[in-house]
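Hey, weird one. I pasted the AsnC family transcriptional regulator sequence into the form twice and got a warning about non-standard characters only the second time. First submission, copied straight from the form history:
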Amino acid sequence: MEKYAMNLDRYDRHLLQILQQEGRISNQELAERIGLSSSPCLRRVRALEDSGVIAGYRAHLDSKQLGLNLMALVHISMDRHTPERFENFETRIEAMPEVLECLLITGQDADYQIKVVVRDMDDYQALLLNKITRIEGVTGVHSSFVLRRVVDKSALPL
């Protein structure tokens, strides 16, 4: 069954824009900023959480402050395009804490693009040789290293 976008009014959109930028804002301040009283504002937030529009809250960490200085985008090719092969790959890659994102893609010579973050080139080599290339079905790996993040956001356009 296809999922349809939830109908959001101007209050919901404004509320979501603020929460994407300031997830720790108090309900009282949020209500004041969108022009509602506290109770209706809280009901809207809870309804957006219950519906799944708000999928969760998380802290945005600075990778460099944690010693994770190397980010790479890795294109991965698979030998066979079968559901079992893809399911095995996705299960294995999801379990790797270094993998920040995994996308099944089209239009490239690769089947997947993953974004990884590690301390340095030695850690990247270990991840690549000891984990990624050992996943059954992986036949090709092409790495690009990120020099600088030009845009780094997760807020969706509303």
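That's the output from the first submission. The warning seems to come from a hidden character in my clipboard, not from the data itself. The helical segments are 10-21, 27-34, 38-51, 83-94, 121-130.
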